[in-house]
Amino acid sequence: MTRIWDPRIEEMPVADLKKLQYKLLKTLVYRLYSFSPFYHERMKEQGVHPDEINSLEDITKLPFMYKSDLRDNYPDRIFTAHRDDLVRYHVSSGTTGKPTVVGYTQNDLNNWTSSLARALVSCGLGRGDVIQVSYGYGLFTGGLGLHYGAEKIGATVLPTSVGNTERQIELMQDLNSTAIACTPSYLLHIGEVAEEMGVSIRDETSLRVGILGAEPWSENMRKRIEDWLGIRAYDIYGTSELSGPMFCECTEQNGFHVWGDLAYVEILDPETGEPLPPGEKGEMVITMLQKEALPMIRYRIGDISSIEEGVCACGRTHPRIQRISGRVDDMLIIRGINVFPSQIEYALMGVPEVGRHFMIIVDRKGALDEMLVQVEVSGEAFSDKITDLMGIRRKVEHRLRNTLNVAVSVELVEPGSLPRFESKAKRVIDRRRL
Amino acid sequence: MDTYVIRQVSVFSENRPGRLAAIARALQDEKINILAFSIAEADGFGVVRALVDRPDRAFERLGSLGFNVAFTDVIAVKMRDEPGGLYEIARILGDAQINIEYSYAYSGKEAAIIILRVDDVQSAIQVLLERGAGIMESSAFQ
Ligand SMILES: [Zn+2]
């Protein structure tokens, strides 16, 4: 089986890769300065000319782009390709206002597909695998992105999309799916429904790999999924602005490889905007080096993570980004302390008495923020004794306080009563009127 | 001894309107009779405890509706229907170092009956029988 999809690029010596990145950046900046009124204006405001970009590090002189730039220029006012050269649109649902539209030239689609081809091969998939794509097909990028990536490497695609979970499980059994691509919470849902149907994913299916993304998840959740379902679970990363799902962990499971010929990642201090050294957590800023229809330069994608450089044990020379540990804008500030929903998920994974699902409700009583976390009591832990249940609640409260450094109240709710999320999880209800 | 052990159905329930009704309706749909029940409340949640004529069916039905259900062993003790009746039973158990976790009343046909959850069911039955207290057999309920 192919171990590396494109060895020339994926194993390129780090120094050569940096040279290539610089070349691509320089070309991109000249192109945008000349042909993109939007970016030309931005650079002028910033007082920077393409001639001043003379090293990869000079990227910090360039202005940032934000999600709002796409919204404000809805639908396609910052596209830099001719409309006739576009071969596809995707549209992301506007959870906070207007949706955003992304467009693709044929080269954009080719790069997206080869990014995923490399990614899928890097987690051990290839010809002979049946990849069940349970991301939504349509305007969302997940379904079609994985679909073409999987076909590219010669795997067989089972395009189930989202929903009709019982049928997903039947098809998984009947057509021997070896991998599934979906959100981690949807895979947990599939696992639960399978158990209700009396099907053991571990023993009665051929599933061995999960390509999981589109929402934050944790290392504990990975362990739980792997132990429970008997598969290897890999983190995949991307958003529609980058093309879609793009980057995935290799079999080392130690952060996703960002293909340096396609993207350049900076990690910055979210407050000061200063670059942070490898290993330190900060705000990810991404520059897409080869996109034609909708270039993204120093895009403040809003995710928090850290970068690891140097050659990976898998042999690939491209940097790895650690699992996303939070969102700059999901970050809740509770009594002055930064809290990420992912930390709560992490803390709850260590308490088997409560289920995997949770909701966070933030409110303000007088001048004080109050955070309530709702969790489901698991069937095995249910005790007839009120004192036992109070003990479970205290245990969760204690654990959350230790993880978050802020006091939290916990509410025990009935199993199955918390919302399940099939795509992006919305686990925070903020009732504060600030 | 096991002839005296009654399987009580315990259900986790949030303290919000309609939950108790949902439990009652589920049992009614299955034509299950509730012989006695109590609700223990804490801040935000509670446990509904019920003696029913068909506990296995009740367990299955409530479980399939997504409720957290458990069986808990309890005993039903006849009380002398006069002042001090309850004290007498509490003293017998107290003397034997058996702890009453909770109790609730059941109005039987002939006598006042109290449902007891104790930390050591077998010893409780033994000591109550030795001291001449009347215990209802589980077949009277289930
Ligand atoms: Zn690697």
Defining traits:
A: 434 residues; alpha/beta; Rossmann fold; GMP Synthetase, Chain A, domain 3; six-stranded mixed β-sheet; four-stranded antiparallel β-sheet; 32% helix; 24% strand; globular; B: 142 residues; VC0802-like; 4 helices; binds zinc ion
Provide an overview of this structure:
The complex is a heterodimer of chains A (434) and B (142). Chain A is built from twelve helices and 21 strands. Chain A is 32% helix and 24% strand. The longest helix of chain A is centred in the N-terminal third of the chain and has 22 residues, at 14-35. Chain A folds into two domains: 7-328, ANL, N-terminal domain (Rossmann fold, 3-Layer(aba) Sandwich), CATH 3.40.50.12780; 333-430, GMP Synthetase, Chain A, domain 3. The model of chain A has no long low-confidence stretch (mean pLDDT 92). The relative contact order of chain A is 0.12. Chain B is built from four helices and six strands. Chain B folds into two domains: 2-71, 2-Layer Sandwich (VC0802-like); 73-140, VC0802-like (2-Layer Sandwich), CATH 3.30.2130. In chain B, 30% of the residues lie in helices and 36% in strands. Chain B has helices spanning 19-29, 55-64, 85-95, 121-130, and strands spanning 6-14, 34-41, 45-52, 69-79, 100-107, 112-118. In chain B, a hairpin with a 3-residue loop joins β2 (34-41) and β3. The chains are: A alpha/beta (434), B alpha+beta (142). Chain A binds chain B through residues 377, 379, 382-386, 389-390, 411-417, and chain B through 8, 10, 12-14, 19, 40-42, 44-47, 49, 66-70, 72, 101, 117. The site of zinc ion has 6 residues of chain A, from loops. Zinc ion binds at residues 250, 252, 257, 312, 314, 316 of chain A.
Strand segment tally of chain B? 6
Tally of domains of chain A: 2
Domains of chain B (count):
2
**Share of helical residues of chain A:** 25-40%
Uncertain stretches of chain B: none
